[in-house]
Amino acid sequence: MKKFTTGCPRNCYSTCTFEVQIENGRIRAIEPHPANKATPEGPCLKGLSYVERVHSPDRILYPMIRRNDTAEFEQTSWNEALDRITERMCHYRDAYGPQSVMFYAGSGTKGLLNGVSLAFWRLFGGCTTTYGDLCWPAGLEATRLTLGENKHSVPWDIANAKLIVLWGKNSAETNIHQMLYINRALDSGATLVVVDPRRTESSERAQLLIQPRPGTDGAIALAVAKLLIENGSIDDGFIDKHVLGYDEFARAVEDMPPERAADVSSVPVEYIRKLARLIAETTPVTINTGFGLQRYTNSGQTMRAILALLILTGNIGKPGAGWIFANLQSHVFDAVKDPVAFYPPAEPDGVVRMSVSTARLGPDMLRMENPPLKMLWVERGNPITQNPETNQVLKAVRALDFRVVVDQFMTDTAREADVILPAKTMFEQTDVINAYWHPYIQLKPKAIDPPGGVKPETEIYYLLAQRLGIDAGQIAAHIPEPTEQGVRAFLEAKLNDIPGLSLEQLRKGPVIAPDHQEIAFSDFVFPTPSGKIELASDEANTRWGVGRVPVYSEPMESTHSEQREQRHKYPLYLMTPNTKNRIHSQFNNLKMIRDVSPGPFVAIHPADAAKRGIKNGVTVRVFNDRGSIEMPAQFDHGMRIGCVAITNGWWASEGGGVNFCSKARETDIAHGAAFHDNLVEVQII
Ligand SMILES: Nc1nc2c(c(=O)[nH]1)N[C@H]1C(S)=C(S)[C@@H](COP(=O)(O)OP(=O)(O)OC[C@H]3O[C@@H](n4cnc5c(=O)[nH]c(N)nc54)[C@H](O)[C@@H]3O)O[C@H]1N2
Ligand SMILES: Nc1nc2c(c(=O)[nH]1)N[C@H]1C(S)=C(S)[C@@H](COP(=O)(O)OP(=O)(O)OC[C@H]3O[C@@H](n4cnc5c(=O)[nH]c(N)nc54)[C@H](O)[C@@H]3O)O[C@H]1N2
Ligand SMILES: [Mo]
C-alpha cells in the first residue's frame, strides 16, 4: 500500500488536503489529513467518491471518433485521432487563419500545468478564446475597485467574529469546511445573519434570515448604510484615515430610506433596521458574500454597496472582522502562468483573439468573422451544460465544422464532439495547485498511472506540437516532456520564479503562500489608485460605466421594473445555485452520489404551486422564451414566494440543463455571467 498527501483541485472554496491510499494501481481509500488547518476534517462525499470516479466503468479511456454527424462514436487509436486533428487544424489555419480555431477551457480542474494549453495554441500560431468568467468576476472587481486587492483573512479567523453575515452564500453546501469555524464562533456567542431568498442549510443557526426578492440586495445594503450614518454608528477615525469618497457615498444613500428598500426588496422594514442595529452594536463583524449573489446584471454595484457596510464601521484589517469573498493570496503563480484574463485586451496581440465573452458564448461565437470560427477545442469544461442560454451554445457549436472535447465522461458537451480525447484525473499527473479561500499551495502528486489509453493534456499537446512540426526548442520551452521527470522539472522551473517555494518543500505537505497576511489588510495598505479604500471609484465609472459610488438599479429581468423585459409572461425568478454533492456538472453520474441525489427537481413554494395546480412530485415544465426543461416539482416551504430553484450542473441527458432558460448576458462589471437574472413560468404537463 502506498500513501500520498494530495490536494483536491476542484473549483471549490475548500480545496481540501487529504491522503490517498493506493494498492495495485487502484485507489483503496481517501483519508482526512490535518496538515491543512482550513480542512482538518478531510474531504466531503465528493472527495470520498474519487474511489468510484477514477475507476468508473463510464470513464472515457480511449480516443473516440465520430466519422459523420449521425454516426455513433467509435473507439480509435491515438494515431488516427491525432492525425485527424492535426490535418483539420492545418487545414483551417491555411484556409482561414489560426483564429478560426477556438480554444475553450472551463474550470474542471486547477493546476499550474493548465497554463500549458494556451502556450500550445500560441505555438500553433494563435486561436480565438474567451474573456470573462462564469464564476466570480463581478465580486472580484467590486472588491479590487474598493480595497485594491482580493484577499481575506485566514479561514479560521471567522471563529473570532461576533457577528457573521452570510450574504448570498450557502457555506453548509458550498464551503462545507467553513462551518467548523462558523459554528465555533456561534458556540462562543456570535450572531449569524443569513441573506438569501432560499432558506438554506446554512441558516439553521441564524438569528435573522432575510429573504429578499432576488437581485435587490443592493437596496438593502444602501438602506443599512443610511441608518448607520444617521444613527452615528460609523467609525469616523477609520473613515478619515483610510477612506476616499465618504461624503459622496453618504449623499447617495440619502436616496434609499429603509422604507424604500423594504418596498424594493419585499423584506419587512424591521428586518432591515435589525440588520443595521446588529452591525452597529456588534464588534467585530465579518461579512461573507457568496458567488451566487453576484450573478445579476446589477451585482457589481450590489457587492460594492455591501462592502461599504464594513468600511463605514471600521471592520477591516482586524481579527474577526472583514470581507470574505475570494482570497487570492495563494495565487502566486498568476504572473508566470497562463494569464487567464477577465478583460479583453485593449491592444489585441494579433495571435490570440480574445473576443468571445464566456457569458455570451453562443451568440458571440456565431457572430465571429474575419475569420469565422470553424473548429472548437474544449477542455476542463462542459459549456453545453454550464454556460448560459444552452440553445444558443448548441447552435454555435453545431454550426462549426469540427469539434474536439477532452473529458473524462460522456458529458453533454462531449456528445457534440467529432473527436473525444480521454482526460486524466487528479491522481494521474503531478501538478501544483492554489486555492481561493485558504492560503495554502499544495502538491498534487501522481499516484497512479493513467488507465487505458488516457494521456494528460500536456502530453496530448506535446504530441500535437511534434506532428505540427513546431520547433523542438519551442516545444521544450513551453510544454513539459511527457514523463513524470519532465513534468517535475517543468514545475520546478516555474516554482523557481517564486522565492520561498520548491517542490521539495511542497512534498512535505501544504505550504502557506509566501508573504501571506493572516489578517487581511492589517497593515492598512490598500493598493487602489488613491492608496485609500475607495467608496467612490473613478475606475468604476471609466472602465465599467457604472456610478462612481454604488447606487441601486433593478436587475434586467425583474417583476418590478418599469422596463422589465418579461413583465407579463414570466412571473417567477429562477435561481440555479450550487449543491452539496456535486461540483457544477461533475460527480452526479456516480452511484455514490446518485444514492443521495437521484435526479433534478425544481424547488417551489407550495403557495406558488397551488396557484398553478401543481402537486408535490408531479412533473412540470419550467420555461421562458429561451428554452424549457421538464422535471418533478418539489415543495419547499423555505423558498421565497415568487422564486423557484434548480441546482445547476445536471446534464441535459440526465433530465437537467438549467441553462436552457438562462440568458447569455454579462454582469454590470467585469464580464461575469448573470445566470440568476432569469424569469420563468412553471406549468403542469
Ligand atoms: N458542493 C459544492 N461546492 C462548491 C461548488 C459546487 O458546485 N458544489 N462550486 C464552487 C464554485 S465554482 C462556486 S462559484 C461556489 C458557489 O457557491 P456560493 O458562493 O455559495 O454560491 P451559489 O451556490 O451560487 O449561491 C449561494 C446562495 O445565493 C443565493 N442567492 C441567489 N440569488 C440571490 C440574491 O439575489 N440575493 C441573495 N442574498 N442571495 C441569492 C442562492 O439561493 C444560494 O443559496 O461554490 C464552490 N463550492
Ligand atoms: N445556471 C447556472 N450555471 C452556472 C452556474 C450557476 O450558478 N448557475 N455557475 C457557474 C460557475 S460559478 C462555474 S465555476 C461554472 C462551472 O462549469 P465548468 O467550468 O464547465 O466546470 P465543471 O462542470 O465543474 O467541469 C467541467 C468538466 O471538466 C472535466 N474535467 C475535470 N478534470 C479534468 C481534467 O483534468 N482535464 C479535462 N480535460 N477535463 C476535466 C469534468 O469531467 C467536467 O465535465 O458553471 C457556471 N454555470
Ligand atoms: Mo464557480
Mind explaining what this structure looks like?
With 685 residues, the chain is an alpha/beta fold. It folds into four domains: 53 residues, N-terminal domain of TfIIb (Single Sheet), CATH 2.20.25; 219 residues, Rossmann fold (3-Layer(aba) Sandwich); 203 residues, Dimethylsulfoxide Reductase, domain 2 (3-Layer(aba) Sandwich); 121 residues, Barwin-like endoglucanases (Beta Barrel), CATH 2.40.40.20. The chain has 23 helices and 27 strands. Helix 4 runs parallel beside helix 17, helix 5 runs parallel beside helix 13 and helix 8 packs parallel to helix 13. The chain is globular. The mean pLDDT is 96. The structure holds ligand MGD (2 copies) and molybdenum atom (MO). The site of molybdenum atom has 3 residues, from loops.
Spell out the key features of this protein.
alpha/beta, N-terminal domain of TfIIb, Rossmann fold, Dimethylsulfoxide Reductase, domain 2, about 30% helix, binds ligand MGD, binds molybdenum atom
What is the topology?
Layout: E1 2-7, E2 17-23, E3 26-32, H1 45-48, H2 50-53, E4 64-65, E5 74-75, H3 78-96, E6 101-105, H4 115-124, E7 127-131, H5 137-147, E8 163-167, H6 171-174, H7 178-187, E9 191-195, E10 208-210, H8 217-230, H9 236-242, E11 243-244, H10 246-253, H11 258-265, H12 269-281, E12 285-289, H13 299-312, E13 322-324, E14 352-357, H14 361-367, E15 375-379, H15 383-386, H16 390-398, E16 402-407, E17 419-422, E18 431-433, E19 440-444, H17 457-467, H18 472-478, H19 484-496, H20 503-507, E20 511-512, E21 533-534, H21 538-544, E22 572-575, H22 591-594, E23 602-604, H23 606-611, E24 619-624, E25 627-635, E26 643-645, E27 679-684
Parallel strand pairs: 6-7, 6-15, 7-14, 8-9, 8-12, 9-10, 11-21, 12-13, 15-16, 16-17, 22-26, 23-25
Antiparallel strand pairs: 1-2, 2-3, 4-5, 4-17, 18-19, 19-20, 22-27, 23-26, 24-25, 24-27
Bound molecules: ligand MGD (2 copies) and molybdenum atom (MO).
